[in-house]
Amino acid sequence: MDSKEPFLYPPASSSVDMSRSTEEDPLVDGPLISADALHSAIRREFQAVPTPCHAALLSLLHVVYVVLSISVAVLCVLESEQKDVCASILGNVRGDSVIVFGKVCLWVLVLLFTGCVQHHHSQARRRGYLRFYRQTQGLKHLPLTVHSAGNVILLVVLALRLSPTLQTQMLIGVLGSELLFALPCLIYYTVQVMRFNSERAAPDVSQEEDSLSHSVGSLPRETGFREGSNLQEVVEKQADLIEYLKQHNTLLSKRLLNLTAQH
Fold this sequence. Notes:
Order of helices and strands: HHHHHHHHHH
Oligomer: single chain
Number of strands: 0
Shape: elongated
Radius of gyration: 32 Å
Strand content: under 5%
Number of helices: 10
Structural class: mainly alpha
Largest sheet: none
Distance between the termini: 63 Å
Helix content: over 70%
């Protein structure tokens, strides 16, 4: 009497079908990307911030403007002997008016410089240099703040309608004070950016990964709020890091799709 025993295991055809479906999957069966191509897609070359040249040029223009303004004030306003020479050069325009016009042009240049610096620093932030962006966040706005404050003082001096001699002396004092405050800020900013460019460091996330990989016997780093730390600073760092990771993942996905299409 033959008795048919029940099957204790699933038929072997199912495993064959699973392997066949896996092999026929276009994502799995797609072309393999070489390690060098994948590494070059993730790691990008260091891009220097080109603003030190702009800061040096602006500093030079500021010094030239102050020297020329003092020369015009002394020769065309304070000393009456040279008024004929100034009239032949400037025409009907007064010497203090020339100084004010030059001040407006200088302020426009400082405004353009601040916008250019903000653009390049935002690019560095998108590339993952969050610490550099935070360190220079207030420094890059100081020249514009100093020149804007100087403009307000100049308007007050002009609105008081003082005597030409006293008004010109106060104009020279305001311009000299601006130079004493703005020039060190530009020099310090130039030094900071040149140091950043010379270090050619990796993005902050890559530096943290490397430090964690080399610290084998040490305790892992803490992430988040710790006792004695500033909560607002921690929140700003986390927000910058999240924004960078979102942009980095989007860019990396596009590059991987391009590499897959090429292979």
